[in-house]
Amino acid sequence: ERYPARKFMCLGGDTAVLPPNVGLAYATIHHVSYIAGMVAARQSDEATLGYVGSMYVADSLSCINAFALGMRSVNASKKLYVQHVGSWFDPRSERIAALRMFENYGVNIIGYDSDSTEVVKVAKEEGKLSIAMKSDGTALHGETNLISVLFLWNDVFVSFVNDSQRDMASWTARQYQDKFVGFDRAAVSYGTLSSKIPASTRLAIKDQVERFKSGEAVFCGTFESYCPADGTSCDPSKTIRAPAPGESCLATDDVLSMDWMLKDIVVDLGLLKVPSECQPGTRLNALAAEVCVPCDVGEFSTAVDAFECKKCEPGYFAAELGSRRCVACTVGTFAGEAGSSTCTLCALGFTSSGAATQCQACQVGKYGAADRSCQQCPAGTSANVTGATECRPCGAGYYSDTGAETCSPCLPGYFRKEEGGIGPGSCSACKRGTFTDQGGSTACGACPAGLTTENIASDSRTACVCAEGSLMPRNGSMEAADCKPCPEGLFCPLGSQERFLFEEDDGEGHAPVLVSGYYSPTEAVSIFKCRPDPRRCPGGKLGDCTVGRTGLQCALCMDGWTATASGECEVCTSTNYLPIVAAMIGALVTLVLAYRWGAAEGKVKQTHSTALVALCGSQFISVVQTLGAFSLMSIPWPEPLKSLLLAMQLLNFNVEVLAVECWVRQSPITLYVLQIMVVFALLSAMIGIHCINVIVFHHGKWSMRKPALINSVGIVVMVFFISIVTTILAPLHCSEQHPNGRSTVGRYPTVVCWEGGEHTSMIIVAVLVSLLPTCFIIAAVWAIRSYPRQMSLGDTDFLSSWSFLLFRFRTGAHWYALVYLARSTLIALVPVIPSTVAQLVSLCCILLAAFIITIRIQPWRVWLANVLDIGIMAALLLIVNMAGFFVGEVDTESIAGICVAIVSCICVVVAVVVSYGVWQRISNVWFRRKPYGRFICHHKLGAGSFARLLKIILSGSMGQSKVFIDSDDLTDLDTLFSTVATKTEMIIALCTAQFVRRPWCIGEATTARLNGVPVVRVIFPEFDEPDEEFVQTYHDHVPDAYILTESGMSEEDVRETLRWLSNQKATLLPRVLGMGTIDGLKTFVLFPDRFEDDHCIFMGAEQTDMRDKTSLVIFDHLNSEAAATSFILVLLLRPFFLCAVH
Predict the structure, then answer these.
(1) Please, what is the angle between helix 29-43 and helix 58-74, to 10°?
(2) Can you tell me whether residue 250 is helix, strand or coil?
(3) Does residue 486 contact residue 470 with C-beta atoms inside 8 Å?
(4) Distance CA 798, CA 808 (A)
């Protein structure tokens, strides 16, 4: 149609209406197929016929059916086995199909209709007979091909060409002329006949050809048919194929569109489905189910569709099925034969190269490894034979390098105790303190105990001297090994001798020296650890001190010298007196201000800010004193913290920080008495200020101003209490033991504890002066105990005298003054404890107890003072806990004991609390001992006063049981429901208008229902019973009901409680209340079982005689809360009025 001027010739193909320029020719090739079927059937009666079809199309099916009809024309019982390959050209599949029919169906004569000659070839190979298609098989492949089915288009081609040269009209008339041509036009042929065809068959062939030329057809008559299994266009419902009416044979178009097979004649084996090709590693086996069969082990294939697999050459193997190549044997293995599936492992001690066919023995100096390689003997071993399976390790005291045949001995001075030494470096030098003088040694001999050698690898006993850290006593000898451990604080180098501490080193050893921070007198070795400032002791020779210092532990400055911050001393100057003068002036001013504040009249008029400043000031002074007490503890505080804590000692009356040594002799007893005198000086100064104040401002009214004197002196003692106690107890601050086993007083390092008269004198003074804080504590205890009684007597002088104790703390917490004094006393006692760990633990306990009490009580008058005190104690606790990091060596056993004690206390406390809870539960279940006989459940706004009235009238009738009302008895909301469940015998529900809308009320009722606690209801006039709609939508009406869910009560629990409440016993209150009503209600709630449900209480008549003097309480009788409040007033006021109250 695109090229109408051109003419086209179509050989075969669609028979539909063609364009005018297209001509059609189709050969009756099925005629030749019919003849081929005759030839095959006449060849042998026993022959089984087969056919390899190409496509399920008319070209193939018409030839197959014609072949079958030709076969049946000779032998009516024969069948034709047909296998299609689905392609016009697929030699591989055609071969497979042919071979399978040979094997599976016994076919010995086979035809086909594809474009290849593969079937002819395979038939010849297998000794079968074939019938070729589209090529002269007999001429090409020999006599095994009986006959061929051929197209001969020569005459048709010539006719087409001639007609194409004519005009279009001639061509159109010629268009369908050769639609079906055959023997008559020489368009088909049977080719060369095989010599195997007998003469009779040849005559039959010629006869049949003539009949076809004369117009005879193949498909004449009626045929039973079926559709091929793998066909696509066939209609399975058509099983009878018949000519058109009036015709005896099928029409040409029916033949050209044939899509069926002859029933009971043609056996359709279906479409052959095999892989398109067999991959390398497999071989083609047409008879196998999978066609592509993997090569066996020891074999391989490299080509596609290989028909056989090759065996592996010697030295190679194929261990798996389907191998594409053979693998060379690895080192240490071999394969001596072809077709090996694995390589044989060489014997141990033998090896091989890759792809080997045999193994060789390992050379001398090598051994056969497990992987069958020959490896050099590793260092530390040797082997001197060929084919060795292992290398023998060198013995102890010997070594070798890699590949050695023999092992070498370790040199003298070296040893090796294990076997297998690797090189000379594996021989260890004798350590210091040991020696050996033989080669090949397995150990070094030790120097006598206490002796060592100066160098390693020693080989002589004479090299043994005292080890570092030990020294030879004056009367000891090296030969006898008399070395003793070097004491703490003394550095003893190698070969130290004690005699060199007192004489010059003569070169035979090294003189021991004192370590920095330690001191020893020159007359004997008695070492002290310099406390509290190790910088005073530079170390070196015995008795050496830093610049300007002298005395035991270098604690004293030389006369006329004063201490500096660097630990040294310097010559006193005129400026050294200024700190003393400044301290005296500052103390005097402070005392005047303290007296002024303490002696002031009318403390009630003091402003909040004034009280806050005074309280915070006293807390600050207390903190400074506490930190000063920290500095007295045996803790090695680091700088700059150490200097800061030492500065805090000024308020601990440490006069040494004022360079007091410049104007007084530095005797320990003198300094101690001087510090004590500071306390009495302060008290005396305060008394002097008081006297001046009384004379100048109060005209000598001594008795009237006595409270001011007591209060002022008390302020001094109270404020400086920690300093007073720590100062008095200073002689007891014996530090931890020094290296020599002795202890010294912490603040007075030149005083040895419990030795000599100096310490004894200080102890006597301390005992006498300790009466001051002792008496003060006794007086404070008396004042606190007397406070309530004196206040009831209105004794304002008592209050003024002891305001230093009482005015610090809020009303009701005056007793905390004793806690405050106890805390201060215990803090001051901590430095007396000899153990650093015990000091820290004690201080933690003291501060923690005070911290807890302060948080719980909040005793200070001003709230901010409580916050400040809590914060200060928290900070002090943090400092104490961090101080543990500064402690060096600690007694871990003591700490473990303390921890065990704490854990034991925890366990005991937990056990006690749990036992208490169990006992409560048992008591509630077995003895029914519940503390609350009645629990009044009410809405405060609707029945608060009524609940109070009910509690008052019930309290006297319940015996030991109590009446619970939350405003009196509730301390914690979290325990409210628990009280209902476990501590209440009966609930009284005051049902006012808003009762059911209060979540807490419904929660209490729900708890009662779930725990079996009975409930009686007192129904007020304004109360409405909840209907079912309200019950179902309760959480919508009461948004706050979520608090019940948080307490574990579901919505269904609440709804069930609302229904349950409506069925509980109830009494109905009248709208007008009277005392008679209250009496009746009392009887009902005490004995509810005596009354019927929904009992009504009527207002009883109350007769009042108004003729006498009478006090009246007037209220609105219609308001239940007003009535209840009035009744409470009547009950409370009657005992105090002479007249009647109504």
Answers:
(1) 40
(2) coil
(3) yes
(4) 15
How many CB atoms lie under 10 A from the CB of residue 651? 19
| Burial of 922 per CB tally in 10 Å (0-12, 13-18, 19+) | exposed
Backbone φ and ψ for 84, nearest 5 degrees, come out as -90, 150
Location of structure tokens 């009722």: 1005
CA dist 558 and 375 (Å) reads: 81
From residue 1060, alpha-carbon distances to 621, 1005, 1028, 1040, 1041 in Å are: 66, 9, 12, 21, 18
Strand pairing of 178-181 and 374-376? Answer: unpaired
Please, is 75 exposed, middle or buried when counting C-beta atoms within 10 Å of its C-beta (0-12, 13-18, 19+)? middle
CB neighbour burial string for 480-509, b if at least 16 within 10 angstroms, e if fewer: eeebeebbebbbbbbbbbbbbbeeeeeeeb
Q: In 49-192, at which residue ranges do the beta strands (DSSP E only) sit?
A: 49-53, 80-84, 109-112, 129-133, 145-151, 178-181, 188-189
Position 209 scores a pLDDT of: 93
Dump pLDDT digits (tens) for 907-940: 887 788 777 767 766 665 565 568 888 899 988 8
Nearest to 655 by CA among 1081, 152, 663: 663
- Residue-wise pLDDT for 763-798, tens only, equals 888 888 888 888 988 988 998 888 888 777 777 778
Q: Amino acid letter at 617?
A: G
| Alpha-helical segments (H) within 802-835 | 803-806, 816-829
CB contact at 8 A, 956 and 1085: no
Q: Of all residues in the chain, what percent are helix, strand and coil, respectively (each to 5)?
A: 45, 15, 40
Whether 134 has a pLDDT exceeding 80, the answer reads yes
Model confidence band, residue 651 (pLDDT cutoffs 50, 70, 90) = low
Q: How confident is the model at residue 698 (pLDDT cuts 50, 70, 90)?
A: confident
C-alpha distances (whole Å) from 881 to each of 121, 326, 704, 877, 892 are 104, 77, 50, 6, 16
Contact (CB, 8 A) for 382 and 404: yes
How far is Cα 986 from Cα 552, in angstroms, rounded to an integer? Answer: 81
Instruction: Say how far residue 268 (Cα) sits from the centre of its chain.
Output: 71
Report the SS3 class of residue 714: helix
CB within 8 A of 1005, min separation 6: which ones? 937, 987, 989, 1015, 1057, 1060, 1061
pTM here is 0.47
Q: Is the pLDDT score of 647 beyond 80?
A: no
| Beta carbons within 8 Å of 190's beta carbon, 6+ residues apart | 32, 35, 36, 147, 148, 149, 150, 205, 209
Direct distance between the N- and C-terminal alpha carbons of the chain, in angstroms, rounded to an integer: 131
pLDDT in tens, 511-524: 788 888 888 887 77
Q: The tokens of 273 are what?
A: 């489905």
* Strand duo 549-550 + 344-345: pairing: unpaired
DSSP bridge pairs for 23:
9
- Residues across the chain: 1142
The three-class DSSP label of residue 352 is coil
Across all residues in the chain, what is the average pLDDT?
81
Say which residue the tokens 């359709």 belong to.
268
The mean per-residue pLDDT over the stretch 630-643 comes to: 73
Q: What are phi and psi of 561, to 5 degrees?
A: -115, 155
Distance CA 801, CA 714 (A): 9
pLDDT tens for residues 441-500?
Answer: 888 888 887 788 878 888 887 778 888 888 878 777 666 567 888 888 888 888 777 777
650 vs 656: CA distance, rounded Å: 9
Q: Is 991 helix (H, G, I), strand (E, B) or coil?
A: strand
- Angular region, 15: left φ>0, alpha ψ -120 to 50, beta rest: alpha
